[in-house]
Amino acid sequence: xxxxxxxxxxxxxxxxxxxxxxxxxxxxxxxxxxxxxxxxxxxxxxxxxxxxxxxxxxxxxxxxxxxxxxxxxxxxxxxxxxxxxxxxxxxxxxxxxxxxxxxxxxxxxxxxxxxxxxxxxxxxxxxxxxxxxxxxxxxxxxxxxxxxxxxxxxxxxxxxxxxxxxxxxxxxxxxxxxxxxxxxxxxxxxxxxxxxxxxxxxxxxxxxxxxxxxxxxxxxxxxxxxxxxxxxxxxxxxxxxxxxxxxxxxxxxxxxxxxxxxxxxxxxxxxxxxxxxxxxxxxxxxxxxxxx
Length: 292
Ligand SMILES: Cc1cc2nc3c(=O)[nH]c(=O)nc-3n(C[C@H](O)[C@H](O)[C@H](O)COP(=O)(O)OP(=O)(O)OC[C@H]3O[C@@H](n4cnc5c(N)ncnc54)[C@H](O)[C@@H]3O)c2cc1C
Fold this sequence. Notes:
Blueprint: H1 4-10, E1 14-19, H2 25-39, E2 45-48, H3 57-71, E3 74-80, H4 86-98, E4 103-107, H5 128-139, E5 144-149, H6 160-172, E6 177-182, H7 186-198, E7 205-209, H8 215-225, H9 231-237, H10 244-264, E8 269-273, H11 281-290
Parallel strand pairs: 1-2, 1-8, 2-3, 3-4, 4-5, 5-6, 6-7, 7-8
The structure holds flavin-adenine dinucleotide.
């Protein structure tokens, strides 16, 4: 399959979706159906998370292979190094390559809830920049490598300058592009890109977009990942929490506004956290594309 880095060279804007591997067979069957409908929107790539949420790790590769083989769309396989030895990572990368997947998102990941005190030893990677270097050392240019970026700083590194420096190390170690954590204030994204450009980072930085569908879940999730709930978000969604349909429509309106401004001000595309659903992403993307 084509590398995502090659698409950036030919297209001004790219659109992509993120899914996660379901835990049950029924969930997996539903996901295949979702992938079919998302494919109709002709995304530039579809990614699948690894390890997050407790879904089987092997399933990530099944999903990505399905996306590529059944829909002819580029698949991006997330890979986290937490809990894996370097030897295991090498085997997983060999397996990814054998499956014909050549785009990966190189991540550190977080220790799981049932093993929160896990610490990397000599045989493990401590940071994702080490995984990037390892991939380049063992596979040269076979893989196109994406990495995670944090416009508001990572939750464990609120010093934005330092966190941007760490991002630069990932790029110096071989990464080709960045997908950001979700955020609600576009200035955080543009300030972040400016910080990175100031450090000499030239690769594309794709903003990650989470459509709001449930305010209480959002508050919980943002507490875990360190994304700020802005005053604007609070003002829109707090008064209507509990009203599913009104929240959904307000979420679509907010995301369309956010996406349009990002593109108008020069973002190289949009990456949607779909949460394994077709809507509201479909509705948002169609409105953004049509310019209505
Ligand atoms: C787009 C996206 C996709 C994601 N997909 C998944 C997924 O599929 N599965 C999953 O489990 N999680 C996923 N995550 C969550 C991610 O794994 C966590 O946010 C994790 O805490 C950080 O991962 P990272 O790759 O950014 O780690 P790193 O880049 O290793 O950073 C981790 C922490 O260490 C600091 N740091 C980095 N490098 C250095 C260094 N050289 N020296 C000192 N400190 C350093 C950083 O500032 C940060 O605080 C995703 C996140 C994003 C934004």
